[in-house]
Amino acid sequence: MKEECVIYHTTSAGETVDLGRQLGECLTRGDVISLAGELGSGKTWFTKGVGLGLGIAWDMVITSPSFSLVNEYEGRHTLFHLDAYRLESLADFLAAGLDEYFYQDGVVVMEWADRWPEILPDYRLKCEFVITDDHTRKITMSGYHPRSVEILKHMEKVGR
Ligand SMILES: Nc1ncnc2c1ncn2[C@@H]1O[C@H](COP(=O)(O)OP(=O)(O)OP(=O)(O)O)[C@@H](O)[C@H]1O
Ligand SMILES: [Mg+2]
Fold it and tell me: What is the 3-state secondary structure (H, E, C) of the chain?
């Protein structure tokens, strides 16, 4: 299977939220979105947008899971927001049972998902964030599984 990709350039945090919202609008239960990119590259703002697209109110204030490793929000589908940053090892990830969220009845968005790519389902949609300037971010979405390609086809129609 060939990997497909769509590249976006956002020029403000608001534009990154909007991109996430447009992704969130087409997501359904079982979807897994893996986010990678350096500190401050926009992963959490993007996740706030995904939440909006899933019908989660803005005042739920989606923030990085700090103590719990996973935050759960009720919307059109449940959003499970995972963050692997603070985990020391894959063993810790598995001991915390975080892999089980991939098989729950909801949408998973995982920050720092590139730390252990081997544990991610092959149907995930990969989103990579690069800081290009103080206010600009290059966001590359990619995947090769039929479900991720379907999402990418939808996202291609969304403005860049
Ligand atoms: N185009 C942009 N898209 C997203 N955020 C931007 C953009 N331009 C500037 N910013 C700023 O960059 C920061 C992004 O923070 P955010 O918490 O989303 O990063 P993160 O990738 O989740 O970081 P961490 O790895 O620490 O969790 C915010 O302060 C935001 O205002
Ligand atoms: Mg974050």
Answer: CCCEEEEEEECCHHHHHHHHHHHHHCCCCCCEEEEEECCCCCHHHHHHHHHHHCCCCHHHCCCCCCCCCEEEECCCCEEEEEECCCCCCHHHHHHCCHHHHHHCCEEEEEECHHHCHHHCCCCCEEEEEEECCCCCEEEEEEECCHHHHHHHHHHHCCCC
